[in-house]
Here is the input.
Amino acid sequence: MMEVTSIAEGIIIDHVPAGTALKVLSYLHIDPAKSTIALIMNTTSHRYGCKDIIKIQNETDIDLDVLGLVAPHATVDVVKNAQIVEKQKPRLPRHVTNVISCANPRCVTSSERDLDQLFHLSNADTGEYRCDYCDEAAKL
Amino acid sequence: MVGRIPSDSQLSTSQFNLVGRSVVTLDDITASQISYLLRKASFISEHLPEVSHAAAGKILATLFYEPSTRTRLSFETAMLRLGGHVIGFSSAQNASVSKGESISDTLKTVSNYADVVAIRHPKEGAALVASKAASVPVINAGDGGHMHPTQTLADLATLQSRFGRITDLTVGLCGDLTFGRTVHSLIETLCRFGHVKFVLVSPKELTMPQYVLDRINASDSCSYEEVTDLTAVIGDLDVLYMTRVQKERFFNEDDYLRLRDTYILDADKLRLAKPTMAVLHPLPRVNEIATEVDDDPRAAYFEQVKNGMLMRMALMSSVVGAPLPGFADDSDENVEVHA
Here is the structure.
């Protein structure tokens, strides 16, 4: 059993918006049933007041584009031999394909078959994404 | 498949060259190209006989998945007045979509028949799907509550003809500003030219979406104010753009009925306006403009209809590469782009 306070090999995703850790794991396609994971939820953050922390054992490669979409202010620490060897920041991708779905019931993606779900970064300052088809803001 | 051989004009590298281009939103074309289309439409209005065979042999397909008699007739008349032909359908019941065909498959099929497609569809983004699937230019004739670029071109042409410019104006937009795609598109396009003050008049339930306000804020020379009382601001306006509260955009009929009659422009309100103000409306109206306003010289909404046809002639002749006799394609005369 892994101790919550440390991992020997893996990654630590810090500064995840409070209460969203499970959703972030889902978008990253990390199955909690198949991975060794520690979740610390709604803990104190000097920067944001409250945050989640995700520790994943034996996982060093996550999609920083997807993380940028769902948790743009998160930080990623890569851990090897119980030491943090690298710090990564999620990217804000200009385009994302088939990561999130448009929630607008009037969007053509709700009825047309075989369409990719396409979103573009509409505001880099706020990290807002909009559907390529209908311009509806992404809802995560 | 036999490839199309471009004519000399199609090979032009002019900044105004629109041959083969789809227009899903007006962001697909430059401000200079919009000015070019305004100039071209003005030329067409003065030279209808001369351009009556410009697009001979060209075929327009009007794919209207929802009824819109006015827009469909405008596109079809525009192509007929250029000497071209028209095919298409006027409702989804008459199309293969009733058998479950996708938009993409329909467009791949129709691309083999037509030189240009005008598509209207109730789903937002349908025109983008169509343009990606088609091998000929696709013009968005309205995709749900999203975009209706040729309506905006008609609006711009009406401002140009009334004021001789599309900048340095105070433009009031009144009614359904939440679902009114024509006002969103007009604002976004006017912001590209700059120097416009917008006065946004709506009930609190139908205010302008934030992304449109963001667009105004992003312009150095444009500004806006949001108000609920039309009579308080009508005297400041150069343009009053009225909109219909559209029943088809509501899921709840009670909300529609409650908001429908919020603003009605009548002779009493018009007395408070400048004598030079222009009243625009994308039509059809229900009751938001009293018929007594129709005879007022400030009523410009039926001019908009004609300007819409002229702009569709200008656009279609451009995207199919049909040169207009006597029109100087490369001239930059009257092109004014401020921002």
